[in-house]
Amino acid sequence: MTDPNHGVLLDVAEGVATLTLNDAPRRNAMTPELGDALRTRVSELRGREDVRAVVLAGAGGTFSAGGDLQMLERLRKASFEEARVFMLDFYARYLSVLDLEVPTVAAVEGAAIGAGLCVALACDVCIVSEDAKLALNFVQLGLHPGMGATWLVPMRVGPQRASELLLTGRRFDGREAARLGLALEATPATETRARAQALARSIAANAPLATRGVKQRLGLDRAALQRALEEEARLQAESYGSADLGEGLAAAAARRPPAFHGR
């Protein structure tokens, strides 16, 4: 099991807490253990008066490669109800970033794929590297989108563009993400973390009660997001029983195009 003290690193300076997903060998793939570590760090930060903004980043030049494929393989053997309940708790681990009372800034370097990109979108502001490798590629694996994708993406870019991104699963870079409104701005890769930190410090310098109030007023509709998560968990649980997901995972492992048959 990932040690919470190492799975997500925590540093606090100048009113800004930096949370760093720290599983670089696996490109910060989203496992239950890494999610537990993130939720633990979020709990540590709640109520801290010396923290006025949070930066979320990934170690090793990668934000997150998305859901762990071995985890997806294991879920194929679970019952529908086991998979549905597991997914709801899995979402909650990572979307615990929404429980932070202070503004959050995602610093997206390298890859942010699938559910990994969704976690970045759950932050109040997203700064991306120009050459970041981004995708909402759930359907390319034969899997229904999860981690709030069906709610977070339309909220950022509108329903039509969200449909295009989620139905094709195509890759795009940080420049396009900024043009579409998925990110505030795109920076050279060497400047992304520094820009996110500078933005967080400028937020932290302001009146804490006022900034927390603004965050609350501008915040996500948690009830609407929860309804989306409930539906996503149900539909992902259905996907785990499909032959298409097995084909998608096999194709991803073999680095070949999948051949889906709709069953």
UniProtKB/TrEMBL annotation:
Q: Name one GO molecular function term.
A: catalytic activity
Q: Which InterPro entries match?
A: ClpP/crotonase-like_dom_sf, Enoyl-CoA_hyd/isom_CS, Enoyl-CoA_hydra/iso
The entry sums up its family as follows: Belongs to the enoyl-CoA hydratase/isomerase family.
PANTHER family to which the protein is assigned, alphabetical: EG:BACN32G11.4 PROTEIN (PTHR43459:SF1), ENOYL-COA HYDRATASE (PTHR43459)
Name of this protein: 3-hydroxybutyryl-CoA dehydratase
